[in-house]
UniProtKB/TrEMBL annotation:
Pfam families: Aminotran_5 (PF00266). The keyword Transferase applies. The lineage of its organism: Bacteria, Bacillati, Bacillota, Clostridia, Eubacteriales. This is Aminotransferase class V-fold PLP-dependent enzyme. One of its GO terms (molecular function) is transaminase activity. Residues 26-412 form the Aminotransferase class V domain. It comes from Clostridium paridis.
Amino acid sequence: MISNLRNYFFGTDTLINTHCGLTNRVYLNNAATPLVAKPAIQELYETLPIYSYGNEPNDLSAKLTSKYNEVRDIVMNFIGADSSLDTVIYTANTTSAINILSQVYYEHDPDKVILATKMEHMANYLPFREKMKTLLVGLTPEGNVDMNDYAAKLEQYSGQIKLVTVIGASNITGIIPPFHDMAKIAHSHGAKILVDAVQLVQHKAFTMKPHTDASHIDFVSFDGHKFYTGQSGGVLVGDKAFLDQYKPLMYGAGITEFVSSSKIIYKDSPERYEAGYPDFLGVISFGAAIRFLQNIGMKNVEEWERGLYQYLIRRLSQIPNLILYGDVYNNTRTPFASFNIRDMSYHTLAHLLGYVYGIDIASGTNGSNLYVQNLLGLTDEQALSLYRSGEEYGIVRASIGLFNNYDDIDRLADALFCISSQQL
């Protein structure tokens, strides 16, 4: 299957119009939204004949609801959750999953402290920052979490920090923080930990570890559109007994056991957090995408993508005036690389790659404003000054997915070499 992976995805042979005419698009923006896996869509085609509201008293409706709920077990199995202790809450996406947990912790104790890092995507920072006191752990020169600063902040605020929130893998550099080590230290100070795994689980094997393990991950979030589905649908996975104690973020039908004008009894999780019409198609396709990767084997996924990434770095490191960000030789990572060309704005570089060479990449801060500022060596004041001047700041990012191949890497590297050479 590895040898013909492109055949399992839509869009791998799409033509794109450039200033030089039509060419085959190279898609390297998988950290934003990857191309769609055909098995995920095939599952939708098989589901559509029985599609309905989902609560009708008949056999087809029961089958639809069963397919939908089976995905909870698929998710638990995929990330090593405990079906007797954890729950899988369906959400619209990872951002909504994290917002649910931020609201839970605000209700739990609004005066307690959240500990985040400067690696975070804004989806894993602003939901906490706008509700509660949120501290930031600094970074190492290589672009990873500074574990000395992390341990020092937990010690300084011991008993006050109730939740650590950390990205599973950077959407900018692909660097993976030592989140299991972070969990162990957090637990020793009475805090739980959330890992935003939306950039991780489709690239590398991941486990929450048992609840009895000191390095157990308490909460995990990820979603389908980053997992080759092209659909909405995400999950928040975590301690059911804890989540059963709090009110939902969103109110509506389907979350209550009983309602009268004087009394409301909410369902337990996950249903109490799943107001409104279920996203049958998004969730069911999500389950199919997970099964697709499991059939390939996550070790095979890692091995294929590691080879592509190492080849990418070898090619990029040979390009004059190209600046790579973060520790690109750290193997504890996902296959993303961020770069600029010296004395050229990231806007110009991205424009040339897209409109001249037909290469789909990302540019800017990509939602990780604090991290990009750090990688570029900008102070808060300098970043604000660039914003106000209209110049802004950012990087260009290439992010590899399962369907990419060595020809894609060569197209990118050859284009960057041509662009860089014209700068000399």
